[in-house]
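User: I've been trying to design a sequence by hand for this structure and keep getting stuck. Would you show me what you'd pick, starting by listing the structure so we're on the same page?

Assistant: Good idea, let's start from the same input. This is the structure you sent:
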């Protein structure tokens, strides 16, 4: 199958969760669940909009422990419940307009993410693939240079998802 949203600078993370696929998918697609685990450790997420359909958007803000607020959005490209989400992730302003990342003037404006979920014996394998699209050479170099930090960040975010899923099944 040809993937219309492929990128050459992909970051790939695979993680197994002790939870059924339906629950993992809901954790990604229902605002009241997503805001309990998404983002860096110690940050809080407020979901302002989540329109789960191709062309729909998620818009939310993250607040650091020190009170710094960052806005971000997902633009959904493909949704196959409960097995696949494809979305473009960007930093944004409060209205959802794409803006530069607050930490780098050369961070790519758009990151395409592919989330696939497979279930086996009540456990779900999440494969998360993402990378810059429509990026300049300088933006691609910035992404590559920050790859270890991005991997570490997603590791922490997925740890929070793991904790959320464990509590959700009790």
């Amino acid at each position: 199958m040809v993937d219309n949203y492929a990128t050459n600078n992909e970051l790939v993370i695979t993680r197994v969760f002790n939870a059924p696929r339906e629950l993992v998918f809901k954790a990604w697609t229902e605002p009241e669940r997503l805001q309990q685990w998404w983002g860096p450790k110690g940050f809080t997420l407020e979901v302002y909009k989540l329109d789960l359909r191709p062309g729909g958007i998620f818009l939310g803000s993250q607040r650091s422990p020190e009170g710094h607020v960052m806005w971000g959005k997902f633009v959904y490209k493909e949704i196959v419940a409960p097995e696949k989400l494809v979305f473009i992730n960007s930093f944004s302003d409060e209205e959802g307009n794409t803006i530069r990342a607050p930490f780098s003037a050369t961070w790519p404006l758009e990151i395409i993410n592919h989330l696939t979920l497979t279930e086996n014996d009540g456990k779900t394998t999440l494969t998360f693939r993402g990378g810059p699209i429509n990026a300049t050479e300088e933006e691609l170099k910035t992404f590559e240079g920050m790859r270890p930090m991005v991997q570490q960040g997603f590791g922490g975010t997925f740890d929070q998802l793991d904790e959320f899923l464990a509590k959700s099944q009790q």
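That's my pick for every position. To get oriented when you compare it with your attempt: The two ends are 39 Å apart (CA to CA). The longest helix spans residues 147-168.
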